[in-house]
Amino acid sequence: MNEKVAMDKLKGLGKDIHDEVVKGEPPKFETVLRSRGNIKYDEGVGCLRLGNKKETRNFLTVSQSRTFMQTVAIANKTKRFLKEDLHTSIRGLYYQLKFSLGENLDESLFEEQGESNALIEDLEVALGIKREDLHLTTDRKGVVAGPMKIRDKFGGEENTIDLTKQGRSGWMVPSDVDNGMEFMDVDAKYILVVEKDALWQRLNEDKFWKKEKCIIITPKGQASRGTRRLIRKLADQDLPVYVFTDCDAWGWYIYWTIKTGSMNLAYLGRDFSIPESKFLGVTMSDIEKYSFLKKLTIKAKDIDVKRASEMMGYPWINKHKEWVAELKKVLKTKQKIEQDALQGQKLTFVGEYIKEKIKNEEWLP
Amino acid sequence: MNEKVAMDKLKGLGKDIHDEVVKGEPPKFETVLRSRGNIKYDEGVGCLRLGNKKETRNFLTVSQSRTFMQTVAIANKTKRFLKEDLHTSIRGLYYQLKFSLGENLDESLFEEQGESNALIEDLEVALGIKREDLHLTTDRKGVVAGPMKIRDKFGGEENTIDLTKQGRSGWMVPSDVDNGMEFMDVDAKYILVVEKDALWQRLNEDKFWKKEKCIIITPKGQASRGTRRLIRKLADQDLPVYVFTDCDAWGWYIYWTIKTGSMNLAYLGRDFSIPESKFLGVTMSDIEKYSFLKKLTIKAKDIDVKRASEMMGYPWINKHKEWVAELKKVLKTKQKIEQDALQGQKLTFVGEYIKEKIKNEEWLP
After folding, report:
1. A94, A339, B238, B297: least CB-packed within 10 angstroms?
2. Which residue segments constitute the domains of chain B, with CATH numbers given?
3. Who has greater pLDDT, B108 or A236?
4. pLDDT recorded at residue B46
5. For residue A205, which residues of chain B lie inside 8 Å, CB to CB?
6. Phi and psi (nearest 5°) for B182?
7. What is the mean pLDDT of the segment spanning A263-280?
8. What angle do CA B267, B268, B269 make, to 5 degrees?
9. Phi, psi for residue B195 in degrees, rounded to 5
10. pLDDT range class, residue B62, cuts 50, 70, 90
């Protein structure tokens, strides 16, 4: 469905440019400014997104001519990927551009991949579509298991994948969870996002997802685009989303990036944010609550403390008094604690910790 | 099966120490030296492994007492993991040690995870077992698809996973492919190892594994322990193993680590090496052979050239004239090329390239 929309939008872009040429007007391409000044926190939705400032690239303006041509070249290539029904990475796109354009031009239109990356973001924003809808694959990292099935149409085949039958491994979260994919028989009470794969493996061995009727996802650190879309789509089915990370600024920022997005990814807006997410832990308060954790804390490094102090400056974080209190504790005690430490006394305690937190609604906003 | 052996060996270790104490002898622990001087290239097998130099840790020698106690503590903990039939990561083990030993001792027995890591390697070598057999999970990264099934017994359940029905994602290679796991109905002509996930996704979309009757695996860069064991076990079924990486010293070294192991992993020996592997490409010679590649090369950085020059010094590499010729081309032309560049002219060319190389037996040793 999205692919169809993407194709129509690419055609529309081509038609507009064509019409301008026919009318004798200079062809142009309008997109939304992605620079810091146009990033805002959308209080209503609860995520970072771009404002309304526009930017126009004009073919006949010398300084913009190259960028304009590059954008058109990318639009043209991805239109062909859609038509051929083939996918590639942005690195593959880069080589396609470098190959086909290098021949007919004095200078190669694309020297660095950085150039094509930025222009893909422009195109996503200008047309209001995702790169995945343009058949561009992205980095994969996350893993999922739990009571649901995936109907997957890809490469001319259709498979139904039961996420309760993936054994010790779980199912790897793909690059694109929208096109040619359906979620079926979702029979979960909630979604649990676990920062580290090691903890995910621990919970998977305990069949936590079966006993608790939940879907467990690990982004393996910062969440990939595919993982964020997967969580977003499940949240759209009214499933609560709980996030469980290390107790330090980096772990907490993984939570915040899932919840509100980040500066760099603000152009993606709500499609890749889950403002409904709640933070289960690990919190600085846990160190006081669970006495066995006291001797398992780690001394925070200067960079950890600096990062915590930066987070204190983000209005979408510091509007929550609970988070200010947690961040202040980091600055004061200069301690941190890993989620792995919850296994210190008993390997299976991780699941008990999560169940207790959810039962007592003991989470941070 | 391995777990049973591991348990017996842990018990044997305990019994030896106990007997020494009863006899009034100082308890000791003997392992194989893992330092550079005891690493050799085994010409017969074709992999890096440890030599015969031993090291003894004596409880009553002041400088060795701490290490001895740490080793016994790790043996004790992993024995409990086996008995409880639960797994954890080495980080989880570290916290278990830190927690349980911290209580009864003046100083904490484990201050840094680095200490426990090195001692786990000691234990693997001393007992001739793998950490996976001690229920320690390791980092996961690789993905696999193709004509085979996995029977997986884990966490009290049994699943049969058909690796032809994993859709766009493939099956994530787990941490342990030995214990509680069987490979069934392997109906492949060969194993193809593809360095980058982006290329694996490309081949998976083309259903390359179906058309070619092969198993495609991406380690996603350097291969994890699980991925290396998976390839080793498939090679033990007499399937040829072909490796396909970037054309630069880093990509080539991914091949060499799969084939012969590396200095750091020499203690693992043949269990994690695949000396039978053959290198399909990308080679420097391909730049001359496939004319479209000429304009898709990248200038090698100083560090690339330096690494190539180092590789030239490894006897297990420089004994092959084909590799010396390739490395010399890097030093001379200072160029490199990514496997992604094969898509420059046509997205589906990657598969054609691989088929042609295999058909013409055009590989490097």
Report:
1. B238
2. 2-137 (1.10.10.10), 143-359 (3.40.1360.10)
3. A236
4. 96
5. 86-87, 154-155
6. -125, 140
7. 93
8. 95
9. -50, -50
10. confident
